[in-house]
Specification:
Elements: H1 3-14, E1 21-26, E2 29-34, H2 38-41, H3 56-61, E3 65-70, E4 76-84, E5 90-97, E6 103-110, H4 112-115, E7 122-126
Antiparallel strand pairs: 1-2, 3-4, 3-7, 4-5, 5-6
Length: 128
Amino acid sequence: MSHEHAVESLRATLGVTFGGAMSVQTPLGTVTIQDSTLGHVVEKRQDQRERYAGFIVPTLERPSEVWAVRYDDGSTRDRYIKVFSRAKYDILVMVKVMEDGGVFWNMMNRDRAGMNALRIGDLRWKCQ
């Protein structure tokens, strides 16, 4: 799939119009997903991140945890984590909310013990 088709797929799945944005209410406030940032998400075509776009809104709306993570450039970004249970391995979705309002996500298949290494920073919110 080309870069442009991947961005179109993201728009369709997330409900973001060309040049537009959509807002998602999270436990910490509103996150706005902007069309202008979607191209960055699918830049590395080998990762095919558009395949997982359907997990993004549920992760933002109902995360398992939210961590404030400090980066080398001095910024702090919220990392939303949600675990989707499966048989042997769980699917972990991490959504970073960038300073410019963009979102970036990654998906991993791991056992629960392997997920502990991803819990870094300051815990801001945890599902009860």
